[in-house]
Amino acid sequence: MHLALLVTNTDESDFAQAHPKDGEKFPTMMARVRPDWTFEVFVVKDDQFPETLDGFDGVMITGSPASVHDDAPWIPRLLQLIRDIHAKGLPMFGACFGHQAIAVALGGAVGRNPGGYQHGRITNRLTQRARWMEPLPDGFSLYGSHIEQVTTLPQGAIAIATSTDCAVAGFVMGNQIYTTQHHPEMTPEFIAALTDELADYLGPDVTARARVSFGESADSDAFAETIARFFEQAISGT
């Protein structure tokens, strides 16, 4: 499997430089379940876009502190690319910003979380189970960090999970699109360091809840397995 990885993460802080970038984190996540898969990384937030979609078996879109509502010129270009990917029939997975960008590109909407920032290990509940999600229990957890969420789904999309104060914690469109509001690529060490980095911004209550949530592990590897099965079923057509 050869995938295009579209990196949207705009964080270029000293903190970001001290940790693996998303162009490394997503392939590392997938290597735990499919070590032979290969990736070509496109830092779309720096206007690095694929010249063609030919030769790719699918596309992954990362998270970002950016908002899909920002006026940065790379965002509408990404939204058009998402529409092109969908029209071509390539399978596409999006996490956090990627999840929201796919929704907006295909006719949905994104708005602010009514309950404010969600951050830490976040419990999800499956509301629909796509066949590639068999490794996940009905209740599973992923690390997350978001202040916005999908408020309206694109036509034909089905919500598959809910989480705290987030009705659409993931959705599918047929067998070609799979998303999550959260961050399966984050490690326990990274989310703990990110929590410390953002403590002043998050405030004491959100920070304290996040640190308590780290007492149990997230289901990151099980979720990575569902991503792998998603791409495999889309390519095989079964």
Describe how the helices and strands are arranged:
Elements: E1 2-7, H1 14-17, H2 22-31, E2 38-43, E3 58-61, H3 74-88, E4 92-95, H4 97-105, E5 109-112, E6 118-126, E7 139-146, E8 148-152, E9 158-163, E10 166-173, E11 177-180, H5 188-202, H6 204-213, H7 220-236
Parallel strand pairs: 1-2, 1-3, 3-4, 4-11
Antiparallel strand pairs: 5-8, 6-7, 6-9, 9-10, 10-11
At a glance:
This protein has 238 residues and is α/β, with parallel strands linked by helices. It has helices spanning 14-17, 22-31, 74-88, 97-105, 188-202, 204-213, 220-236, and strands at residues 2-7, 38-43, 58-61, 92-95, 109-112, 118-126, 139-146, 148-152, 158-163, 166-173, 177-180. The chain has a single domain (2-236), classed as Rossmann fold (3-Layer(aba) Sandwich), CATH 3.40.50.
How would you describe this protein?
- It is a single chain.
- The protein has helices at residues 14-17, 22-31, 74-88, 97-105, 188-202, 204-213, 220-236, and strands at residues 2-7, 38-43, 58-61, 92-95, 109-112, 118-126, 139-146, 148-152, 158-163, 166-173, 177-180.
- The mean pLDDT is 96.
- Strands 2-1-3-4-11-10-9-6-7 form a nine-stranded mixed sheet, sandwiched between helices. Strands 5-8 form a two-stranded antiparallel sheet.
- The protein has seven helices and eleven strands.
- The longest helix has 17 residues, at 220-236.
- The chain is globular.
